[in-house]
Amino acid sequence: MWAAPRRTRLTVYLAGTAVNLVIAAGCLLARAAIPAGHAHDLLAAATLLALLALLLIPTELLVFMRTDAYYVVQDLAGCTNLYADGSAYARYRAKLLWHGLSRGRVDRPTPAAHCPGTNAGRYGRTPLCSSAAPSPA
Questions:
Q1: Assessment of whether the complete model's pTM goes beyond 0.90
Q2: Residue 110 and residue 97: Cα distance in Å, rounded?
Q3: Per-residue pLDDT tens for 47-77?
Q4: Is the CB of residue 57 less than 8 Å from the CB of residue 20?
Q5: Distance from the Cα of residue 59 to its chain's centroid
Q6: How high is the pLDDT of residue 133?
Q7: In terms of C-beta distances under 8 Å and separation of at least 24 residues, what long-range contacts does 24-29 make, across chains too?
Q8: Hey, which of 18, 53, 76, 79 would disulfide with 129, CB 3.0 to 4.6 Å?
Q9: E strand or H helix at 14, and its extent?
Q10: Residue 123 — left, alpha, or beta (φ > 0 → left; ψ -120 to 50 → alpha)?
Q11: Residue 76, SS3 per DSSP
Q12: Coil, helix or strand at residue 38
């Protein structure tokens, strides 16, 4: 999927969630269309399948794990490695907090020192993701 265009990648990433929603909607529509007196077991199976399909959706939206939503966020943010860039940014923010708490220190860490490959000083703010490949360190 790395070589595919962005639109194709996003379609593939979101396809699993879309299939779960279609299954749940189909089961709920079947349950609504069948009268209550007929095929009681079929109604119970449709309800169970719809519930199972809906319960799988929140697990697909966990961004801190490498699920479909992780890859969607990574692709939309333009990151090559969202986990590494996010970890570097978190370390940078932690150092800023530490330097802010330890008063008297003049040398504040720069984003470039903790987020290699970023445009650290551009526009006075730190970018979340770097467009460069992750460093081996």
A1: no
A2: 13
A3: 888 888 888 888 887 877 888 888 888 888 8
A4: yes
A5: 11
A6: 46
A7: 24/49, 24/50, 24/53, 24/54, 27/53
A8: 79
A9: helix 6-33
A10: left
A11: helix
A12: coil
